[in-house]
Amino acid sequence: MPIILDGYRPGALGGVLGLHMDYYTAKWGFGLAFETKVASELADLLIRMDPARDLFLTAWRGDALAGSISMDVTGGGPDGAHLRWFVVSESERGSGLGKELMARAIEHADRVAAGRVWLTTFAGLDAARALYEWHGFTLVSESDNDQWQGGVREQLFRRPAAVGASLERLHS
Known about the structure:
The protein is an alpha+beta fold. It has 4 helices and 7 strands. The protein has one domain: Gcn5-related N-acetyltransferase (GNAT) (Aminopeptidase), CATH 3.40.630.30.
């Protein structure tokens, strides 16, 4: 059964939250603070998102959610679009789905946000970091701040505007 890329479907919010909890609870011991943060912030994006600017991309194998990624352009602030909720199910890791989701999100940012993107993550997610760096992100800071309350070191990555891109698109 092939992977189908889509946007929002009923149950997608819960599915994305479930994929995050499956991974981050088992691998990092994250709990209630992380789950409620992801749930409330993802719900906020889905309620306010502008489909012409923002991206909520889901990947499905049949009825099973296989992965997701989001690009919050309207709420990203002065540093550009905010890359968020990038996750791939255990069964799809290593299949290339993560690379496909990231490529689509970056293409979207290049098209509607002049390519300027930022994200927060934490030290130790080496496969994701390799994808970020492949797509032009650089680590700009690392701190003991732990917004996820999982005992991790927070990292901030930024990707500059695409060469020749108009920054006016960020504010249109």
